[in-house]
Amino acid sequence: MSDASTTTVAPQVLLVNHFKALKLPTFAREHEKVGVECAREGIDYARYLLRLCELERIDRERRNTERRIRMAKFPVVKSLDTFDFAAILGLNKSLVLELMRCEWIEKRENVIALGPSGVGKTHMALALGLAACQKGLSVVFKTAAALVHELMEARDEKRLRLLQKQLANTKLLIIDELGYVPFTAVGAELLFEVFSRRYEHGATLVTSNLPFDEWTSVLGSERLTGALLDRLTHHVHILEMNGESYRLAASKKRQKESMKSKFTEKENTKTNN
C-alpha cells in the first residue's frame, strides 16, 4: 500500500519540479485543476495542453508587463481612462488615441506635450508610457531635472557611458517637466547628448510648460537649443494642451464645497436656536 502510494505521488512531485525548472509556474499551479475540468468536459489531451499553454502565456505576459512597469519607474501608474479630455481645449483626441497604439514608438518618432502647469501633461505621458509597457516595449520615465542630475553624477563617477547606453537602448524615453528648472552649461550639453543619441534610433516623449522659443531660457544656448529642437521635431507629434489647471480647479471646488458646508451648518444652527 505504501509502495502504491509512493508510485501515485512521485510522478506528481516530479512533474511540478519539472514545471518549475522549465519556468512554467502556471502549469505547476493549474495543471490538476485544468485536468479535472477537461476530463469532466470530455476534452482530449491536445486541447488540455492548449488550455494550459494559453493560461501560461496570459500569466507570463501579465508578469512581463508588471516588470516593464516597475523598470519604467513611473511616479504613479495612470491610464487614459481617467483623463478628462473635456477640460483640455483644443487637444486632438483622435491623435492621442492613435498614439496609444504605439506605432510611433516602433517608427522611432517623438511626441511633445506642450501646455501650462496642471493641465495633465504628465498624466498623458504616463498613459502613453503604460500603453507602451502593455505592448511589450521598454520604457524609462525621468523628470528633466532628475535626468540631468543623474547624468552629471554618472559623469563624476566615471559611469556616464553605461548610463548613456541604457538611455539610448530603451524603446521609449519619457522626459517630463522640461522647462521648470534651468540647467548649467554642462547639464544642458549632457541632456543634448541623450537626445542626439536617440535621434532616429528611439522614440522620445517630452512634456514642457514652455513654447519652443523659450527653451533657450532652460538650455542656456541658442545654438544648443536649435540643434536639440532640430533633432526632436524632425519626426514629431505635438500635443497642445491648454486649459485650467486640474489642481487649481480641484482647489476651487474644495473651497466652494467648504463654504457651502459652513453656510449650511450656520443655517442649521440658526434654525435649532
Can you walk through the features of this model?
Helix 1 (2-21) crosses helix 2 and helix 7 (144-156) crosses helix 9 (185-198). This protein folds into two domains: 2-68, no CATH class; 80-248, P-loop containing nucleotide triphosphate hydrolases (Rossmann fold, 3-Layer(aba) Sandwich). It is of the alpha/beta class. It is extended. Helix 9 links the parallel strand 3 and strand 4 (203-208). The mean pLDDT is 87. It has a five-stranded parallel sheet with strand order 2-3-4-1-5. The protein is 62% helix and 10% strand.
Which short descriptors sum up this protein?
273 residues, alpha/beta, Rossmann fold, 5-stranded parallel β-sheet, 12 helices, 62% helix
Provide a short characterization of the protein structure.
With 273 residues, the chain is α/β, with parallel strands linked by helices. It has helices at 2-21, 25-41, 45-72, 93-99, 103-106, 121-134, 144-156, 160-169, 185-198, 216-219, 222-232, 246-272, and strands at residues 110-114, 139-143, 172-178, 203-208, 236-240. Helix 9 (185-198) links the parallel strand 3 (172-178) and strand 4.
- Give me the Rg, rounded: 27 Å
Mean pLDDT across the residues is: 87
Q: Which strand order do you get reading across the main beta sheet?
A: 2-3-4-1-5
What's the helix-strand series?
HHHHHEHEHHEHEHHEH
Category by helix and strand content: alpha/beta
Distance between the termini: 86 Å
Class of the largest domain, according to the CATH hierarchy?
Alpha Beta
Gross morphology is: extended
CATH topology of the largest domain: Rossmann fold
Number of strands: 5
Q: Can you count the helices? A: 12
Which stretches are poorly predicted, pLDDT < 50 over at least 5 residues? Answer: none
| Biggest beta sheet attributes | 5 strands, parallel
